């Protein structure tokens, strides 16, 4: 009886992969500032990254995109992340974030295709809409992180302007640009960083124009029915 209840619970949870990925990202965002003062914060944060990548593969598996491509991006990211944690070699972190960023962008494309695959609005598609925004924000934040590692000083701020921006600052910057609310106290200095920021503004605008408008249209259609 307990096994059947557990199986039913797992099957119910499996219906909402987008919700679980969103939950892991939100928890990562909440916990990370508190972990920065601990000795093993990078290792713990990397565990969240690995969990997020595994869930991202699960999400893509539900979309029309090829699952093997997701694994080709996720597995190197996981291996490189673990290698960085054990060796503390910054080169491994750089390449891990390159693959992670690509994986998040790939997941965003998969989520969009999943939402546009039919004209039926489901609960998981609502989570997918929110998830699309967060995975885009994560993907661009990782791109900014790679940029400032390749070009030190390319992203600066009012607080400790000579120091590289922390992950919390980069994710704040990414959410700010993607939502078209401005840069805040962080500035993009290097041309490459500005190109990434410009492209993110365009993606944020397209998100509002395509995803949000589609959700509004489908919601209105459901109410009419």
Automatic annotation (TrEMBL):
All copies of domain Potassium channel, residue ranges: 147-218
Q: Which Pfam families match?
A: Ion_trans_2
Give me the segments passing through the membrane.
20-37, 43-61, 68-86, 92-114, 126-146, 201-222
Origin superkingdom: Bacteria
Key words of the record: Membrane, Transmembrane, Transmembrane helix
UniProt keyword Transmembrane present = yes
Q: What is this protein called?
A: Ion transport 2 domain protein
What organism does the record attribute this protein to? Methylotenera versatilis (strain 301)
């Amino acid at each position: 009886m307990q096994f059947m209840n557990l199986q039913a619970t797992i099957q119910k949870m499996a219906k909402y992969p987008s919700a679980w990925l969103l939950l892991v990202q939100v928890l990562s965002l909440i916990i990370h500032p508190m972990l920065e003062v601990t000795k093993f914060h990078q290792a713990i944060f990397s565990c969240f990254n690995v969990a997020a990548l595994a869930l991202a593969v699960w999400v893509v598996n539900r979309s029309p995109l090829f699952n093997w491509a997701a694994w080709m991006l996720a597995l190197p990211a996981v291996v490189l992340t673990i290698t960085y944690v054990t060796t503390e070699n910054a080169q491994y972190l750089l390449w891990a974030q390159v693959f992670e960023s690509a994986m998040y962008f790939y997941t965003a494309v998969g989520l969009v295709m999943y939402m546009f695959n039919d004209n039926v609005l489901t609960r998981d598609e609502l989570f997918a809409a929110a998830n699309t925004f967060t995975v885009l924000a994560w993907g661009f934040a990782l791109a900014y992180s790679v940029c400032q590692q390749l070009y030190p000083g390319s992203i600066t701020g009012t607080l400790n302007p000579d120091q590289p921006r922390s992950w919390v600052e980069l994710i704040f910057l990414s959410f700010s640009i993607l939502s078209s609310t401005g840069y805040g106290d962080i500035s993009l200095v290097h041309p490459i960083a500005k190109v990434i920021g410009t492209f993110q503004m365009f993606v944020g605008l397209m998100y509002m124009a395509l995803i949000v408008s589609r959700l509004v249209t489908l919601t209105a259609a459901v109410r009419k029915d």
